[in-house]
Amino acid sequence: xxxxxxxxxxxxxxxxxxxxxxxxxxxxxxxxxxxxxxxxxxxxxxxxxxxxxxxxxxxxxxxxxxxxxxxxxxxxxxxxxxxxxxxxxxxxxxxxxxxxxxxxxxxxxxxxxxxxxxxxxxxxxxxxxxxxxxxxxxxxxxxxxxxxxxxxxxxxxxxxxxxxxxxxxxxxxxxxxxxxxxxxxxxxxxxxxxxxxxxxxxxxxxxxxxxxxxxxxxxxxxxxxxxxxxxxxxxxxxxxxxxxxxxxxxxxxxxxxxxxxxxxxxxxxxxxxxxxxxxxxxxxxxxxxxxxxxxxxxxxxxxxxxxxxxxxxxxxxxxxxxxxxxxxxxxxxxxxxxxxxxxxxxxxxxxxxxxxxxxxxxxxxxxxxxxxxxxxxxxxxxxxxxxxxxxxxxxxxxxxxxxxxxxxxxxxxxxxxxxxxxxxx
Amino acid sequence: xxxxxxxxxxxxxxxxxxxxxxxxxxxxxxxxxxxxxxxxxxxxxxxxxxxxxxxxxxxxxxxxxxxxxxxxxxxxxxxxxxxxxxxxxxxxxxxxxxxxxxxxxxxxxxxxxxxxxxxxxxxxxxxxxxxxxxxxxxxxxxxxxxxxxxxxxxxxxxxxxxxxxxxxxxxxxxxxxxxxxxxxxxxxxxxxxxxxxxxxxxxxxxxxxxxxxxxxxxxxxxxxxxxxxxxxxxxxxxxxxxxxxxxxxxxxxxxxxxxxxxxxxxxxxxxxxxxxxxxxxxxxxxxxxxxxxxxxxxxxxxxxxxxxxxxxxxxxxxxxxxxxxxxxxxxxxxxxxxxxxxxxxxxxxxxxxxxxxxxxxxxxxxxxxxxxxxxxxxxxxxxxxxxxxxxxxxxxxxxxxxxxxxxxxxxxxxxxxxxxxxxxx
Lengths: 425, 425
Known about the structure:
Mean pLDDT of chain A: 93
CATH topology of the largest domain in chain A: Rossmann fold
Oligomer: homodimer
CATH class of the largest domain in chain A: Alpha Beta
Radius of gyration of chain A: 25 Å
Helix content of chain A: 40-55%
Largest sheet of chain A: 6 strands, parallel
Strand content of chain A: 15-25%
Largest interface: A-B, 123 and 123 residues
Order of helices and strands of chain A: EHHEHHEEEHEHEHEHEEHEHHEHEEHEHH
């Protein structure tokens, strides 16, 4: 692995170069055409695209509930047990995220507050092929159902040999209400605008390739979307006491996701840096996804040696990694220094893959530096708020002059007159 | 006003036609070019565009703090009092929105939780000319500062005669940290990517014209944005007891905002519908912004007469109005029927303009049906969450088999090995 020994300012510039992404206008155009076609031709467009992109000739889009039941019956008992444990832990964690509204009646004659309502219908995109992760279905579906979403609609690309049973079993366990086989930008268009078969939803969540991500960005506004997810990332902060073999394994667990994944170690020990680099090379040789992991390690990953702990955190906050491991003794002491990160793993036995599957916290996390302003997927993503306000005649009279002054300053006479209309009789 | 007497299904189709908006690809292209130019040429691009679009030749972008002080000194005392009352009420309401994280240590050997951190730097767009609303500055700035945003940067288009003193005074009262004079898509690009003078922010909020809205949509992902705001809307639910003159005044208070504004009354009384329509025509004749309000009333507004209260709410939930007035007796009894609305005004003395200025709830609200999935602007828009997790060796050992099973099912061998690396010695 590339080892840097630069000062903080230089490291921040280097990190910035790693995070630059450019817009692909050709993909933008292709996606725009697909969306317009789905708006115009509905189900027929979906079937045409399935034939063209997935090489599958569909007679129907809906996956029958009986097929979900059947899939649940076929998966092996160990996987079933893992899925059910994951469900329990994800549920327990996300129950803690539930919020309530409020009402303030502390001033006589004034009621003001906010109420929460679950989104009615949500769409979940699940990639096909090797990127079909049952764990992701649970991570998206469970918070939505805890929030109170009435209709959770899942779409996933059709497969020549039928949809992966583990995916359908996870849909059943996660409480998905309906599954349709359609993928890509056309699937996102169907969820945003609706077709004869697929209902238009209020929000679309779930990961996908560049076509899916671009389509989600384009339909944003028509519906809500979760963050447009980029390649996976791990940042590790470690001192000389950490174990190189474990850190290397953790770096590789992210690198194997994607050629564009990023694995980043920041440490105050050059010895550790060198030992980890050696371990990474060695562990790579026996990985089934060696080629992918190697590309991610070579092109997108690094080790930075920085002398001061505060600077280590400063750099990591500038990176704003999706996953952050703190491999120090007493790691929770450092939580206050973390400003930007999706999910933090504290100490030796909190290796990142634990969080990917079944510890409970969500694994749908902000990537590409967006942890500066985004949160993990949670129950709060499936509710919206409505304010309410009630004034008595007396309280309105108390502020009438101030409101009309304000309105007339802004040149909005009709606003002022709406107040005055109350006091005409 | 157009009065409909149709069944619910027909009304829903009519309402759907009103909300259709189309993408303007020419504007998309123009905005794309502007953003690329600002990324490449920084401050110089901003100055060139100010000359071209605003006809102002700028020597500097920053508005000095002393200019804010001076503006605060020049505004009249009544306006100052209105702004300060608004500040107090907005602060009181938004303090109630503050959230905390959580930690769960109920299982020995497992710590899991979530912490909240304020966004570090936020950009606020304030339109120029007649659309420069001091109230909007307070509505955006106060929640940001309550959340703990360290650096709140405001931009507003340069004006030939200097920026409106009320705008600068509101910036001072709202706690804005720096003001730059730059507008349009170029201003949004500056906030998203930074220039020599203007710092890149984590999130951009605030209303603007179609160029601003399009630019916000295009930089989404690079930074967070608030909802892309459309024209203002009011929905009113009223029965035969409501007063036509008051309802007409309220409908017009939204109609005067914009030719594309929408004013919608749903009532079970045809008599009331006809009386309100007559009142609207009459009140229109003396409005300074008559032409704008008339266009909004003619082209985008309607009255629907529906016999049943449940259907009235069903239709209004399909509309998902930005503002909703419930002009019934005992209006809070009906709050449970409201699913989709930005802000609800209960009863005769809670006319919508009261909420625009100083009752306390936010006036930055979801428009164009987006209340189906979006919330009013609030303190929660200026914080993000970070999960954290710590497992003991024993607890990791307890779930190790389940995690490795999961990982191998998903074809991610390196994930499984990261778990196993902990138990090698």
